[in-house]
Structures are given as structure tokens and as C-alpha cells.
Design a protein that fits this description.
By secondary structure, the chain is an alpha/beta fold. The chain is 29% helix and 25% strand.
């Protein structure tokens, strides 16, 4: 069991030169393995005229074709239960998760025992990175039903923490657990962390004084890396918030913030990161905003080679002040959620930043995207904070001006409702309604 700052100091502080050597060695093995065992990759790479031994440097990964969610759906169930992307027979698979299906047909993600064990070691690493220790009591308040984040609790157990497998309990029951067992850490979504804190206050429980939560881990939606949202949740709970990031296509949390809260360290010993232009797919320099593309370096059940995640962000490989050398990702949102108004790219994360920053509104909001006169428009609905003392029209103007300053384009309309009108999310919030019928895709 580690006793210092790092779960695996040698790996987490490996100089970039050594990390590159490790990645290249793993990449060559992963490509050869995928070509030999996955029907899809052999067929696709033969058609593209590329082979695993074409890779001499990490940059050579660009010779290989992309895959995406559509690839997964098309290959799923073809030829076998696991589908053509899989590289092992079903007998070697010990766990499967599925995506939420929020952007289409749910896709299955299989794991061999080696995959699963290494997945949990990464969870232990990032829990330790966020400050969890064996003396902590941890409530895992994430969905266990087929969700890839469910098993992450095992990583906390392997670390030595006392783990309470909460799952998606009703809020009243979860508050009872928080009061009775006095856990020090909890993991849920940003929306639910806010909702749960508000519910505690309304029920006469002060999260700051009556509970022992001192670390909140969040994932599943934007918010944890938005400064205003993080501060609001931290102030409500008097706890430190850490943003985690994962995707069902690879494994649970594969990136997380450290104590500096500047980007999320991604497990580069497991994932090779590229950033590509949203329109052309061309690789762009590190640090520039584009679509994040991941290649697994150790996955056996289903290697993911040049997987276009649909996540918009940037990758910074420079070392962090925390001493870790694994690069950091900064995720701005989903490509599916980004929309263009008057030629300006509008990201829901920027809208959330504004709403959570303004004192005049409660922090709850919804966004409606629609078409008018063959152009894209958006409306924002927010709540007038009970203690703002300002008329709705003044608050609406304040929100509109702030959105213009942050995003570069005003909403067509800002609707202001009384405090408590917008339905609170008990888990993953659905804030965007897209009513467009024309093709506004990028």
C-alpha cells in the first residue's frame, strides 16, 4: 500500500521521454493484437492498406482509420454476441457495461479479467490522487445498472477505504446514510451533488456542520471543471470537489483532477490521446481545441483504435505542479451538444459557467435550441434567486448580457422563473432541448 503522495510514483512521474517509449511499445503490441484477433480491424486495415508493423513512432497512428459510435453499433452483435470489434471469445469476458444510449442505440463494452483488474487499479490511482486514503469512508452514489462507473467502487475498496455501495438511492435514504455513517467522501454527478446539498438544507440538515463529507467526486456531465459550478457546490458542502472523467467505450474514470484542479490527468499508460479538427479530422497540435480521439494501449476484450469520442476539448502533455507527468485533458462538452449561432460555436459549458456565476439566479437552467428563419437560435430559462430582490426583467437582461460576453452571441430570449420552478435533477441532468429540424451539424 502506498504511503506517500502517489499510488504508483514511478509510473505517475515518468518523464515524457520514458512515457513515450512505454506508449510506443504498448501501441505496437495492441495494434498487432487487434489485427490478429478482431475481424473488424483486420478487414478495415486491409482495406486501408495499413498494417501494425507500419508503426515506427506514435505519430504513425494517424495512418489508421478512425472508429466511432456508429462503428460500434454497426459491429455490435455481428458474427458473435460480442461483435466484430471484439478480440476475445465470450468465455474470456467477465464484465460488460453499456452506454446510456442518450445519443443512439446503447453500445456494450466488454472486459476480460485483466482488463477489469487494470481498470480498477486506475480507479485506485485516481482516488489516491484526489486524496482518498484508507481511513476514509466512501459512499458510491452512482448507478450500478450496467453503468461503467458502477464498479469504480472496487478501486476505492482496493485502496483500503470503507465503502458504502449506495447506488441510485432516493435522496431521503441517502441523506439518512450520510447522517448515520458520516462518510467523508461521495461520488455522484454535479447536478445531484447540488440537488442533494439543497435537499439537505431544506430538510434541516446543514451539510457543513451535520455531515462529514470533505471530498466530492463528480462525473457524468459538465460542471466539475466549471469554476463557478465547482465553487457553488464546494461552498454548499464545505468540501473539496474533484472532477472525474470516463467513457463506457474504454472504462470508468480514466482521468481526474489533482489538488491543483487544472485539467484532468488521463492515464496515458492505458490511453493514447490525439486531438483532431472537428470538420476535417486532421490532427491538430496539443493545446488546441478539437475532438478528443483515444486509442487503448492495453485493452484485450475490445481494443479501441483511434476512437472519436465526440468530446470537445484539448490535451496538454506538460507536467503538472503536482509532479505528475501524465497529460491533462480539458473537456468543454459534447460535439452533439455544441451548436452554432451566427457563425459562433456555443458550448453548453459556457452557458453553465454564466448561470452558476451570477448571484441573481439560483444556478438551475435549461436551454432550448431551435430554428427561426432558417437560422439557429437559442433561449435560456433560469430562476430568479429568492433573495435577489431584483425584478425578472432586470435579471433577464443581466443574464443575456453575461451570455453575450461569455459566448459571443446573445440568446434570442431569456426566461426568468421563480426560485424552485425548474425540476431538479436527481442524477444526470438533461438541460438541453434541441427542436431543430434542419441539419445544423458541423
Amino acid at each position: 500500500m502506498p504511503k506517500g503522495k502517489y499510488w504508483n510514483e514511478e509510473l505517475e512521474t515518468l518523464p515524457r521521454e520514458g512515457l513515450t517509449v512505454l506508449q510506443l511499445e504498448s501501441l505496437k503490441k495492441e495494434l498487432a493484437y487487434a489485427y490478429a484477433n478482431s475481424p473488424y480491424y483486420k478487414r478495415a486495415w486491409d482495406a486501408a492498406g495499413v498494417r501494425p508493423d507500419d508503426v515506427k513512432t506514435l505519430a504513425d497512428i494517424t495512418k489508421f482509420p478512425f472508429i466511432d459510435k456508429k462503428t460500434q453499433r454497426d459491429a455490435q452483435g455481428v458474427g458473435s454476441f460480442l461483435g466484430e470489434l471484439a478480440a476475445v471469445p465470450e468465455e474470456q469476458v467477465v464484465f460488460v457495461s453499456t452506454s446510456s444510449g442518450s445519443t443512439g442505440v446503447p453500445t456494450m463494452s466488454p472486459f476480460t479479467k485483466q482488463d477489469f483488474d487494470e481498470f480498477q487499479d486506475v480507479e485506485s490511482r485516481i482516488f489516491w490522487q484526489a486524496g482518498m486514503r484508507p481511513a476514509d469512508r466512501y459512499v458510491h452514489a452512482l448507478n450500478f445498472s450496467l453503468y461503467v462507473g458502477g464498479p469504480d467502487v472496487i478501486g476505492a475498496q482496493n485502496l483500503g477505504a470503507l465503502c458504502i455501495w449506495g447506488g441510485t438511492l432516493p435522496s431521503e435514504r441517502l441523506i439518512f446514510i450520510l447522517k448515520t455513517y458520516q462518510p467523508t467522501c461521495i461520488w455522484t454527478s454535479p447536478s445531484y451533488a447540488w440537488y442533494l446539498g439543497e435537499t439537505c438544507v431544506k430538510s434541516g440538515v446543514d451539510p457543513k456542520k451535520d455531515l462529514s463529507i470533505r471530498k466530492i467526486f463528480v462525473a457524468g456531465e459538465m460542471g466539475g471543471s466549471i469554476g463557478a459550478t465547482r465553487k457553488a457546490i464546494e461552498d454548499l458542502w464545505r468540501a473539496e470537489l474533484y472532477d472525474f472523467y470516463g467513457l463506457s467505450d474504454i472504462f470508468g474514470a480514466c482521468a481526474a483532477q489533482c489538488e491543483f484542479h487544472d485539467g484532468l490527468h488521463i492515464a496515458e499508460d492505458h490511453i493514447l490521446v490525439e486531438t483532431v479538427d472537428l470538420q476535417t479530422g486532421a490532427v491538430i497540435p496539443n493545446g488546441e481545441r478539437g475532438e478528443l480521439v483515444y486509442t487503448t494501449l492495453r485493452k484485450k476484450a475490445r481494443p479501441m483504435i483511434r476512437f472519436r469520442t465526440g468530446d470537445i476539448g484539448r490535451f496538454v502533455p506538460e507536467p503538472c505542479p503536482c509532479g505528475r507527468t501524465h497529460g491533462r485533458i480539458y473537456v468543454d462538452g459534447r460535439k452533439d451538444d455544441m451548436f452554432i449561432v451566427s457563425g459562433v460555436n456555443v458550448y453548453p459549458s459556457d452557458i453553465e459557467y454564466v448561470i452558476r456565476e451570477l448571484a441573481e439566479v439560483t444556478g438551475e437552467y435549461t436551454v432550448r435550441i431551435y430554428e427561426q428563419d432558417f437560422t439557429c437560435k437559442y433561449d435560456v430559462t433560469a430562476e430568479n434567486a429568492a433573495n435577489s430582490g431584483k425584478p425578472d426583467a432586470e435579471v433577464a437582461a443581466r443574464v443575456s448580457d453575461a451570455l453575450k460576453a461569455r459566448t459571443g452571441v446573445k440568446p434570442a430570449k431569456v426566461n426568468i422563473l421563480p426560485d424552485g420552478t425548474i425540476e431538479r435533477s436527481t442524477h444526470k441532468a438533461k438541460r438541453i432541448t434541441d427542436e431543430r429540424k434542419l441539419d445544423f451539424s458541423i
